[in-house]
Design brief:
This protein has about 230 residues and is an alpha+beta fold. The protein has helices spanning about 80-90, 150-160, 190-200; strands spanning about 5-15, 20-25, 25-35, 50-55, 65-70, 75, 100-110, 110-120, 125-130, 135, 140, 165-175, 180-185, 205-215, 215-225. The chain has a 6-stranded mixed β-sheet. The protein has a 5-stranded mixed β-barrel with strand order 1-2-3-5-4. A 3-stranded mixed β-sheet has the order 10-11-13.
């Protein structure tokens, strides 16, 4: 996926989870933070960041979205909407080794809604996408904050698997060069327990890392999942 009108800046502060102050060549700007996670290890004063600028005619409260941040040598995309967009491009183009005959986003199955419904060779599949922005020493982790919603999604995938559908928890790592991926049991042990239980119950857990530039995010390779 691609961004347009990207400008660099330096992170100043985050008054609340939705807004950030960023210094740019045109002064300090108020930006929308497209990630409600903590990002505490990323959004540090002085950190290089990148913003997407919108025109004056856009019906928005701010003219900028905060989309990427530099952490040492590592460039991370922190746009929480980007993993679904990248996953859709990846799946539609045959990234898993096959091109789906049906690919529907935001699919309702029973009382649940999943990010994607796919069909291939008579097989019906559901996939739930999670964006990963937490890195510790080259190891990718999820979540960076407790997520009861994430636990619920895993239970819904389990129920789908029990009824004979393919079910996948698809972790999109919004950075490159990771050694492996694992649930963050320190921050939210219940999520790790739920992911391991789901995997034992027929849910596939896959993690894929991305090539990241300030202007783009593209899924490129699988990362080993350690449960």
């Amino acid at each position: 996926m691609q961004y347009s009108n990207v400008v660099p800046g330096r992170f100043v502060s985050r008054p609340n989870r939705f807004l950030a102050q960023v210094e740019t060549a045109d002064g300090v700007q108020t930006c929308h933070v497209k990630n409600t996670g903590r990002c505490a290890e990323l959004l540090l004063p002085g950190a290089p960041v990148w913003l997407q600028r919108f025109g004056a005619d856009a019906k928005r409260k701010t003219k900028f979205d905060l989309i990427a941040v530099q952490k040492g040598a590592l460039l991370l995309n922190i746009d929480s909407q980007a993993p679904n967009a990248a996953a859709r491009e990846f799946l539609a183009s045959g990234g898993l080794g096959w091109i789906p005959s049906v690919l529907r986003p935001e699919y309702t199955w029973g009382d649940s809604r999943f990010d994607f419904y796919l069909e291939h060779g008579g097989r019906r599949c559901l996939a739930e996408v999670k964006g990963v922005t937490l890195e510790e020493g080259g190891h990718a982790r999820f979540p960076d904050a407790p997520t009861e919603r994430g636990v619920r999604h895993l239970g819904e995938l389990e129920r789908a698997a029990a009824e004979g559908l393919g079910a996948t928890a698809f972790f999109v790592i919004q950075m490159e060069g990771m050694k492996d991926f694992a649930p963050n049991d320190v921050t939210h042990p219940a999520f790790g327990e739920a992911l391991r239980h789901a995997a034992e119950s027929g849910v596939r857990a896959e993690a894929w890392e991305c090539a990241v530039t300030p202007e783009s995010l593209r899924i490129v390779r699988p990362v080993k999942v350690r449960l």
